[in-house]
Amino acid sequence: MTEKKGTGWFRRADPAAFEQSDAHLQKTLGVKEMLALGVGTIVSTAIFTLPGIVAANHAGAAVTLSFVVAAIVSGLTAFAYAEFASALPFAGSVYSWANVVFGEVFGWIAGWALLAEYFIAVAFVASGWSANFKQFLSNFDLALPKALNGSFAAGNGGVIDLFSLLAVLIVATLLWKGTNSTAKVENTLVVLKVLVILIFIFVGMTAIHPANYSHFIPAHKAGTTFGGWQGISAGASQIFLAYIGFDSIAANSAEAKNPQKTMPRGIIGSLIIATVLFVSVSLVMVGMFHYTQYANNAAPAAWALEHSGHPWVSNLLSVVALAGMFTAIIGMMLAGSRLIYAFGRDGLLPKFLGDVNGKGLPNNALLVLTVIAVLVGSVFSFNELAGLISAGTLIAFMMVSLGVYALRPREGKDLPVPGFKMPFYPVLPALGFLGALYIFWSLDIEARLYAGGWFILGLIVYAIYGSRHSKLNK
């Protein structure tokens, strides 16, 4: 990798070096595959769990507004993502982009933030899959022994969440074989999942009680993040864990066919589809039962159908949802492994992480992601995971929004002209940054503290190892 500008930690990468390094990755993903990857990742465990969690803990029946707020801020950032992915289709997404336009240390900060997201997100989605599977088995009076029924962090006498572990291992095995076969499985599962979401919406509409929408925005409880605008914005901040799906598309742009067209269509198209589904499901769910009944319920959609007199549909939803949730684990693990690969490729983490096998697959990075995700799932409970995911996503959103100001002047000069440009420049990038910043400060203090601790650890790792082994700084 050659130096572009700047000195020391602030040297900027030569995009030609990234292009050369990623040349061995197989370009097998088209618009259809990117849409499936995006929708499959965004509309993941979140659509069957978050409406209930956010309604009970933060927004009440106004959970729908939380999804809308999150979608608006995400939509602004999606335009920036689309321009970057079209101009710089490299593995690592925001990490690689910030490396080119800002310098290596900024790329490291963005990538390090996203790395935490993928570790946590894989564990969270697998935990949600496990919760829904156990809900399904309970309909037949089947249950695992307590020791295998949850992580020791959950405090319910569990030692390990066996089903969560199995979900991660199944997806890791599938990805080990390659992206082409995985994409075919992803496409099929996404179609099934969207169908079952539509079934939930139409069946759930028959069980809506309008009284549940009264006091749509509950009064704010002083000293908490429940109710009022505070509750809506706190709910939106938690919902951002779903929209990390944008990055799961961008992280795989090096494996896209015709990325100048494929990436913008995949990113923006998946956002539109996902937002419509999220808003519809949350509106139906809080209409079926009062939001207080979803407290501490990790499988609210299946529970709502079962308790509204539709056990058969509940079982159908559980079966297809269980299969469909694998799409999110696939997306998270695919993107996370490519990010770790990019770190190894550039020398910021041990070189073996940037190695690929004979089929051009970064399976060393995939193995490390699998192990760490399993460990994270053992240390944190389901609700803790839900609250911790969004911080890194928002940091990446802020950086990519500001990055448009550094990218645009170089397009058509030392960087390619993208197939898509963010509209209403320079206003929208600023709005995207401010929106993400506002949501970040709406996070729970615990999530911000964890993010700060992870950020400090990242700078230490970069100072001790990354800066000394970086190919750019050599």
From TrEMBL:
<feature type="transmembrane region" description="Helical">
    <location>
        <begin position="419"/>
        <end position="441"/>
    </location>
</feature>
<dbReference type="GO" id="GO:0016020">
    <property type="term" value="C:membrane"/>
</dbReference>
<feature type="transmembrane region" description="Helical">
    <location>
        <begin position="105"/>
        <end position="131"/>
    </location>
</feature>
<feature type="transmembrane region" description="Helical">
    <location>
        <begin position="188"/>
        <end position="208"/>
    </location>
</feature>
<feature type="transmembrane region" description="Helical">
    <location>
        <begin position="34"/>
        <end position="56"/>
    </location>
</feature>
<feature type="transmembrane region" description="Helical">
    <location>
        <begin position="361"/>
        <end position="382"/>
    </location>
</feature>
<keyword id="KW-1133">Transmembrane helix</keyword>
<dbReference type="Pfam" id="PF13520">
    <property type="entry name" value="AA_permease_2"/>
</dbReference>
<feature type="transmembrane region" description="Helical">
    <location>
        <begin position="312"/>
        <end position="341"/>
    </location>
</feature>
<protein>
    <submittedName>
        <fullName>Putative Amino acid transporter</fullName>
    </submittedName>
</protein>
<feature type="transmembrane region" description="Helical">
    <location>
        <begin position="267"/>
        <end position="292"/>
    </location>
</feature>
<keyword id="KW-0472">Membrane</keyword>
<feature type="transmembrane region" description="Helical">
    <location>
        <begin position="228"/>
        <end position="246"/>
    </location>
</feature>
<keyword id="KW-0813">Transport</keyword>
<feature type="transmembrane region" description="Helical">
    <location>
        <begin position="62"/>
        <end position="84"/>
    </location>
</feature>
<dbReference type="InterPro" id="IPR002293">
    <property type="entry name" value="AA/rel_permease1"/>
</dbReference>
<keyword id="KW-0812">Transmembrane</keyword>
<dbReference type="GO" id="GO:0015171">
    <property type="term" value="F:amino acid transmembrane transporter activity"/>
</dbReference>
<feature type="transmembrane region" description="Helical">
    <location>
        <begin position="388"/>
        <end position="407"/>
    </location>
</feature>
<feature type="transmembrane region" description="Helical">
    <location>
        <begin position="151"/>
        <end position="176"/>
    </location>
</feature>
<feature type="transmembrane region" description="Helical">
    <location>
        <begin position="447"/>
        <end position="465"/>
    </location>
</feature>
